[in-house]
User: Fold this.
Amino acid sequence: MESTYLVSLGRGGVGKHSYRDLKTPIGRYPLGVPRDSERFHIFIPIGYPTADQKREGYTGQDVGIHGPSPRFKWAGPMNAWFGWTAGCIATATDKEIESIAAWVRKTGAATIIIE
Assistant:
């Protein structure tokens, strides 16, 4: 099954290299186990930085896929219209992150490619 979602990325754009640069990383990353999040309903960790990236000096932590901010859930699909995260990938709705989390749990070893 293939699905497509409009998402919001880091407000600094893409090409993450360092902690707190507000950018979303580009590359191929393993996805961790989805977990509940008070801030974003569900958070799915992205395996950034990879071992190779760490050797090249990339830094960062807590990068993942998550739902919309609670204070903007009312906006629904409009949440994906602008980059607002601190370097993560945010879905526009809780229903979307729930669908992605279910797929990750089902596959067990999911990977994301961010281009």
